[in-house]
Amino acid sequence: MWVFALPALLINVCIILIPALLTLAAAFFFWDGVGTPVWAGLANFQSLFEDPVFWSALSNNFIWTAIFLIVPMCLALVMAAALMIAPYSRIVVQSIIFLPRILAAAVTGRIFQGMIFSPVTGLVGWFNAHGFSVSDPLADPDRSLYAVAAVDIWHWWGFLAVVFFAAMRQISIDQIEAARLDGAGFFALLRHVLLPGIRPTLALMMILTVIWSFQVFEFIYIVTQGGPAYGSEVLATLAYRHAFLESDVGKATAAACVMSLFGLCATAAYLWLQSRDGARAA
Amino acid sequence: MIESRLNRTLCLLLIGVASFTSLLPIVLAVMNAFKTTLEITTDPLAPPHQLHWENFSGAWKNAALGPSLLHSAEVAALTIILVCVTAAPCAYVLARQQGRFWRFLTFYFMASITVPVQLYLYPLYFVFAKLGLVNSIPAVALIYTAMFSPFSIFLLRTYVLAIPYALEEAAQVDGATPWQKFFYVILPMMRPGLLTVAIIAGLNAWNEFVIAVTFLQNDSNVTAIVKFYNLTGQYSTDWGGMLAAAVIIVLPVVLVFVLLQRRFIDGMTAGAVKS
Lengths: 282, 275
Description:
The complex is a heterodimer. Chain A has 13 helices and two strands. Chain A is mainly α. Chain A has one domain (43-275): MetI-like (MetI-like fold), CATH 1.10.3720.10. Chain A has a two-stranded antiparallel sheet with strand order 1-2. Chain A is globular. The model of chain A has no long low-confidence stretch (mean pLDDT 91). By secondary structure, chain B is mostly helical. Chain B has a single domain, classed as MetI-like (MetI-like fold), CATH 1.10.3720. Helices cover 78% and strands 0% of the residues of chain B. Chain B contains 13 helices and no strands. The longest helix of chain B is centred in the first third of the chain and has 32 residues, at 65-96. At the A-B interface, helix 1, helix 3, helix 4, helix 5 and helix 6 of A face helix 1, helix 2, helix 4, helix 5 and helix 6 of B.
């Protein structure tokens, strides 16, 4: 029977497991990616920890995690609850808020650069032309991370709302009706009936949010490349820069290891939640 | 119930604002794709005076979008085939076999879903470079297969679990081998699941950025996403042409989405919703 699993396993081991183990090993070598690796001990980690950009990147990862645990979650919960109460056009509304999720990150990133943030061709420029003074957040090291986060939230929150809505629909109607008859308002309903009802889904999405927040790369690399002045640099963009622009694969893999370490706790929680669930399903 | 009416009005207002926010950047992009750069800089919010279709022909010709779209289609098709062929039998045994080895394998695939690309990207790139596999479209499809198949395996596994075991037993009594059971009993009943997996794998392969931009560097075999990324930047000047290219790249995805939205949404939210 194991032959059935062999092709999938073989591809997975060759593309993911072996290179991942090589990454762990490479973190302890000086290597430019082409020549012969030279044993480095902990030197790569040392140079990483002495680099102030590493610490600001790490703290940006934490900021990113906090933003994504709060903003899209709240937006999606309120939206899903609103969909529960709104009597019609659920399918159309769901499709509309889901749409950003299926657009390619490269396209979404460029559209936001040109149409929203650009002081020449975007909404920011339009506001300036109409008497409001707004500057391009992407050009400001203190605000660029938040601007990119806004793009990713736009792309992500609608999907999350659809997930929460699907989970809320599994709550028994009687429970909701009973709460309504008792005079529960919107937020009371959300807090005492809908939120407890979707707790497993909510927990899973929060764990995944933590895992993904430490891996975040695409939108930041596309929109700001970690700049300006490393203002939006995160561990993943730092690693990528070291590997391909500065030919310092040792330091890049060390950064990748640190990054994975932070995701690991969340991954453990994820595996625990999923395997408990899988055992029940089987 | 006055309060309820107030609630409903607030909900509708909320839904309206949400839909508007989700659509605004898309509408702006489509609208400005039909305008000249001068019109865009004068007022990005104004609708086009006349439709400048030459933005689209320009993007198609100058950016050589045609060949790159073909490469995107190749990568997506190859990924879909590889994912379906490898994930379906794997999902079958993971659903049906018991015991420590299979539990470990399930655990392994689950863990590989959360592994960051960055943890395997660098050695993979430099090994592929040594083997001459950089700039190869099949190599990129192989990487996508590894990335997308664990999710597909778990999605298909739920389909197998829903198939009554009695059906297999009946086939077994008739003397069917495991392969015959898989092909004639399981696979036909998995078909809706396979369609969902194909849609999601195809969408992800079409849109993927990190692997494509790293492994495809030769302008003659990049995917549409990489082509678009390389052509445009923060300091682009031809925004009309750029937005037209964006519309061309996104259009196939949106068309499939509109046609199969239920399957799209159910497939992508599967695994996220816990009961």
